[in-house]
User: Which sequence fits this backbone?
């Protein structure tokens, strides 16, 4: 496969997965604002959305309080904002279009449908109350597109590079969601009059990663921070967990190397080292400074992406 096509597929998978996580994060935080309704939580929620999106120019507190619709439009619909939800979906479609010859019609049409869901919206007429229905539609369409990847493509290099992008982005997004939520935990404690702030915080962390129901199935108890992190980082059988996605990256990297007759070297060693470290880690092995641990893990994941680019995507 040409390096250019492999690169397009990899980034199409990454942007598809990023679109899903952004939509779910925005949806969950929108419901939080409606439910709690305090200005402090409103401002914190929007700051959290900006941080997860990777936007550097975060509006001031006063601007957020007085221009909520503009803030939402910037996060979701702004064509000039490289990190907005609309831009992310647009980049997914453009990368998939560049690889159109190696994907099937069902997948291509599902990506176009996802694109049209958000592209047909007029930003001037968009209201904050519309965000829930929009994000729910995006979540539905990303699920359909990912099902076509798994169930309608030959599991060859095309599928492998798409899945590499999806799994790597999933691991990155879960890391970023955890660090973003951990850094705002103190704000929740100070601004919300709750009997159990940790339970509320953990509940939102699990909702943002689509993990709440499976967490309850696993632990059968009120969510707490330690068990929530254990589930999201170390649960090998949960598709949203970090270890699950790293193990699948390892499997796919080895499969691509075998397809191309490449002997295992630095890339496979690096992925295997991270995968083994997570596989044999217990929650008690993770230091109390969870943010630093997750940030170091995110650096390791970025190194995987860099090594993938060095081997397969430079052209």
Assistant:
């Amino acid at each position: 496969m040409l390096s250019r096509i492999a690169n397009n597929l990899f980034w199409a998978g990454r942007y598809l997965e990023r679109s899903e996580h952004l939509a779910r994060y925005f949806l969950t935080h929108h419901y939080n604002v409606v439910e709690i309704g305090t200005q402090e939580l409103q401002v914190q929620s929007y700051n959290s959305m900006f941080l997860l999106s990777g936007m550097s120019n975060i509006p001031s507190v006063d601007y957020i309080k007085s221009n909520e619709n503009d803030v939402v439009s910037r996060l979701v619909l702004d064509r000039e904002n490289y990190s907005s939800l609309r831009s992310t979906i647009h980049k997914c479609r453009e990368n998939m279009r560049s690889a159109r010859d190696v994907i099937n019609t069902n997948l291509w049409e599902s990506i176009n449908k996802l694109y049209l869901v958000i592209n047909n919206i007029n930003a001037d007429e968009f209201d904050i109350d519309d965000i829930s229905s929009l994000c729910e539609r995006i979540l539905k369409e990303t699920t359909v597109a990912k099902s076509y990847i798994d169930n309608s493509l030959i599991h060859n290099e095309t599928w492998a590079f798409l899945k590499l992008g999806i799994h790597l982005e999933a691991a990155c997004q879960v890391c970023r969601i955890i660090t973003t939520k951990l850094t705002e935990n103190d704000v929740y404690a100070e601004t919300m009059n709750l009997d159990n702030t940790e339970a509320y915080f953990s509940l939102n962390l699990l909702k943002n990663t689509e993990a709440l129901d499976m967490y309850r199935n696993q632990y059968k108890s009120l969510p707490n921070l330690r068990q929530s992190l254990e589930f999201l980082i170390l649960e090998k059988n949960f598709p949203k967990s970090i270890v699950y996605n790293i193990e699948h990256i390892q499997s796919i990297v080895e499969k691509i190397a075998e397809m191309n007759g490449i002997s295992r070297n630095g890339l496979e060693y690096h992925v295997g080292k991270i995968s083994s470290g997570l596989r044999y880690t217990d929650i008690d092995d993770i230091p109390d400074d969870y943010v630093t641990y997750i940030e170091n893990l995110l650096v390791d994941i970025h190194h995987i992406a860099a090594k993938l680019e060095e081997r397969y995507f430079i052209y």
In short: The two ends are 12 Å apart (CA to CA).
